[in-house]
C-alpha cells in the first residue's frame, strides 16, 4: 500500500530539517561580483572572542566579547607596509591614530533602521502534564510551534511508551524526535527513533522516521549509517529531500580517507561522488595521485570538466602577501571607540612582531591591512578590490556576518583565510579554505570530555550549564562526546546563576559523592561561589571541570580553587615562564611601552604559525595541516588541525597545584 504522508507530518518533516542552521542555502562557486550597495549599513554583532587575561600566567577562555582596557595612550601604534603597486583604491585620509598603508573605505552616511520590538512570547498551554493523553499530544504540537522544544519533549515522552497504549503513540514518538532534533539533542532523538522503528514497525509514517534518523546520524558524525538509512527508503519517496540533505552534510566531511572509504561502499551514490570531486577540485585536497579518481568521477557523473579541473598548485615563493581585514574604524577617532577597539590594535601589533620574526629567519611575509569597519558594507568594498584576489593568506575579520562574507570570497578565490578570534565552529563546517585560529566551543567540549574519560576512574558525570545558547551547545557537545566514549551523563541541567533557586534546583536530587565528576559550563560571576558552596554542603570531593575564567572571578579565591579538584578548560593559557612568552613580552614592551594582552599574543602566534606554513608548503597548505598533529606553539601551548579539522584541535586542561598552574595534557599527551 502506497504511503500517503499527512499534511502535519510533511510540514514537520520539512521544517525539522530545513529550519536548522545547517540547511541554509549553501554558497555557490562562481566568480565574485561587486556587491550591490545597500540603502544603509546594518551594524553587526561581534563574534565571540577572548578577553584579555586579568592575572599573570592565566588567560580567560574567550567566551565573552572583549572589554575595553583602562584608558591608556599608546606611545606607538604599529604601522603597515605599503600596499601593492597598482592598487585600485587609495587610502583615505585618517586621523593621526590611523597609520599609512591601511585601506579604509568610506563608511555609510546613514544609520540602519531601528530593529522592531520583540514580540511577546505566546502563552504556554494551560494544562501541561494533563492525565489526558490527547491533551498532552496537542500540547506537544503546540509547544513545538512555539519553539519550546524541551517542554514539548516532556509532554510527549510518556505517550510514546508501548505500555501507555495511546493510539497515536507512533505520531507522538515522531513529534518527540522532531523536537529533540530542533533542540539539537541528537542522542535523545536517536533513542526515540530507534524505539519508533522497533515498537511500531507497521506505522505508515516510518519513511519519515528513517529520513529524520539519517539527519541525526549525519549530525553525530556517523555518515556511513546516514547513507545506509537513506538507502533503505523507498526509491519513489523523498528523493529531492534526500539529495538536499546529502548536499548539506557531505561537504562537511573533513577526513579524506573517510571520504574514500565511503566511496568504496557507495560507488553509485552520485551526491557522494560529486561532493568528493568538489573537495578534490575546489577544496584543496587534490594531489597528482588523485588524477585517475577525479577523471573517473567526472566521466561517471557527467560533471563539467572545466569546473572540476583543479587549479595548478601555487608554486612556492620567496615572499608571501597576507591581507589583514580588521575593524580599525579610523573614521571614528573618539576615545570611547579607541578604548573599545584596543583589542584590534593589540592583535595587529602582535602580527607586526611576528612579521619581523619571520623576516629575521629568512621567511618574509608582507602585510597589507584594510579597515573593514563594523558593518558589512565596508567589508564588501574591500572585497571588491582587485588586489585582494592576489593575496596568499587573509586574516580576519572579527564580526560574524563579515566572517561569512569573507568565507564565501575565500572559497571562490581559493585563498586560505583565518578568523583570529571566533569560536563558532559552524563558520568552517563545509569550507576547505576557512580556518579558525581558536578551538571552537564544540571542540573544547569534545577535548574536555576526552580528558575527563581518561582522567577520572568513575565514568559518570553531571553537567550544569548557564542559560545561554553557547553554554547549552557546549553542554550538549560534552554529553554527546563523553557518552560516545563509554561514559554516562546522569543529568544535564540548565541553570540561571542570577536566580538562587535555579542553582539550587540544578543540584536537587544529585548525590555529588556518587558521581565521577561535575561539569559546570558557566562564566557567570555567581556560578563559582554557588557551585563550590553546594559541593561543600554535601561534603563531597568530586572533581570539577569548568572554564578558566573562574580564576578571574573576584568572588572565588585561588586558594578555594587550589584546595579542591578543579580542572580548567584553558585554550588561551600562557606560561609566563616559557622562553617564547618571555621573549615576546620583552619585544612588545620595547615597542608599545605596555605589557601585551592576550590579543597581542594571539596575533603573534597566528601569523608566525601560518606564515611558517606558507613558506614550508606553499599557499595551498590544507593537506599538510591535515596530515600533521598539534605542535607546541611559540607562545601558546599548542596548535594543530589534524584529520582535516578547520579549528584548532588542541585545548589545554590546567589545574592549580600550590597556586601554580600546571598543564595536564601537554602536546603529545592526549
Automatic annotation (TrEMBL):
Bias (Polar residues) ranges: 128-137
Classification via InterPro entries: BCAA_transport, Leu-bd, Peripla_BP_I, TPR-like_helical_dom_sf
Signal sequence interval, chain numbering: 1-24
Superkingdom: Bacteria
Compositional bias ranges of the Low complexity kind: 31-95, 104-113
SUPFAM superfamilies: Periplasmic binding protein-like I (SSF53822)
Keyword hit for Oxidoreductase: no
Stretches the record annotates as Disordered: 31-137
Biased composition (Pro residues): 114-125
Alphabetically ordered keywords of this record: Signal
Domain Leucine-binding protein per the UniProt entry, residue ranges: 361-616
Similarity comment: family membership: Belongs to the leucine-binding protein family.
Protein's name in the database: Leucine-binding protein domain-containing protein
